[in-house]
Amino acid sequence: MMRLLRVLFCAYIMVVIVNAMPEPKDPRVPFKFYSRQDWGAAPANDTVPLNTPVPYVVIHHTYIPGACHTFEECSRSMLSMQNYHGVTLDWGDIGYNFCVGSEGGAYEGRGWKTKGIHAGRANGISVGICLIGDWRSELPPSMQLETTKALIESGVEKGFIRPDYKLVGHRQVMSTECPGGALYEHISGWEHFSPTFVPMKA
Ligand SMILES: [Zn+2]
């Protein structure tokens, strides 16, 4: 009888402790995510649906603008890119699906469901992620790299990226130095990196 009471008391204490703990953060989103609304995006004028799940992820850098380290700086970079891509180049919106800042924030560009304009023939079969900054000779801070990986992972979990996706740098799809030599060298060690770009059927 005493033993049963002890067990019941311990179980009661466990319930009290567990209930007193703070709500765990969603483990699938281990980074700050900023929606278009958060960074003050203008409405998109080009919204072709993306056929998902996509078989490719294409990695970019901006070169210009340079790295941003706060939400305010990164929001300004997003707005300047949206203006350049959307108005100056007449693409109707920022070209990338997502961007990532050096402070570790992920910024929604066209998002998961809209075809981007970032890598020519790969646009319709990929999600384009841009690491804001010039990564030709310098590597992005680890937070920026980790958020990029986690963002891709969340895309797989949400069903927008194929679990067997291939990761490539922009330079493998088109003639460009993007995503910069240092960053390209680094992502070539990532698990899903593909040394060649041979488009699979989406
Ligand atoms: Zn690029």
TrEMBL record:
Keywords: Disulfide bond, Immunity, Innate immunity, Signal
Key word Disulfide bond present: yes
CDD domains xrefs: PGRP
Chain ranges of the N-acetylmuramoyl-L-alanine amidase domain: 42-180
Entry-linked Pfam families: Amidase_2
Protein family according to the UniProt entry: Belongs to the N-acetylmuramoyl-L-alanine amidase 2 family.
UniProt protein name: Peptidoglycan-recognition protein
